Amino acid sequence: MARRPPSPFHFFAALPPPPVADQIATAWQRFGTGEPLRRDKLHLTLIPVAQSDLPPDRLQAAMQAAGDLIDLPAFPLTFDRLETWPQRGRQDHPLVLTCDAACQPAARLSRALRDALPADLRWPPRPFRPHVTLALGKGFPDPIALPMPITWQVRQLTLIQSLRGKGHHIALMSWPLADR
């Protein structure tokens, strides 16, 4: 039986600029587990879009929702630790860069996106856990506090198409946030 090609999955994200990706790579080299860094896929997921294979009209509706938010202000985002996020039934867990209070502006943008999306494109509400997945693996025995937190100014949001099972992300469109 022939395998079905992977269906695309869409989500809104904030992408670290290249100098920040370099800082993330340096932190991973120093404190990581030896698993390969997913450098070409570094992102902060703001919100997934509910349907995996969006028809063109629904994709356009998601883009319109994001376009309606461009007067939201750019904001600083600071990550201060590495953690393992265990997932049932998996041996390779997400190894993530994360934060708590310093991520509240990202949580506000996530809520604004969710509220702006048409109801048929919204996932059921769930807690927003800001993170950047760095690798997959067995993980850390305990969280690791970074001696130098990693900060970037989030200046845009991007709609990403992920080809599940292919490890490939395509940036479909980006929207600038307001500089204030």
From TrEMBL:
**What InterPro entries has UniProt attached to this entry?**
Cyclic_Pdiesterase (IPR009097), RNA_CPDase (IPR004175)
**Would the keyword Ligase be found if you checked this record's keyword annotation?**
yes
Keyword Ligase: yes or no? yes
GO-annotated molecular function: 2',3'-cyclic-nucleotide 3'-phosphodiesterase activity; ligase activity; RNA 2',3'-cyclic 3'-phosphodiesterase activity
Instruction: Please indicate which superkingdom the organism of origin belongs to.
Output: Bacteria
Swiss-Prot/TrEMBL keywords: Hydrolase, Ligase
Any Pfam family the entry gives: 2_5_RNA_ligase2
**Protein name per UniProt:** 2'-5' RNA ligase
Give the organism, scientific name: Paracoccus homiensis
What taxonomic ancestry is recorded?
Bacteria, Pseudomonadati, Pseudomonadota, Alphaproteobacteria, Rhodobacterales
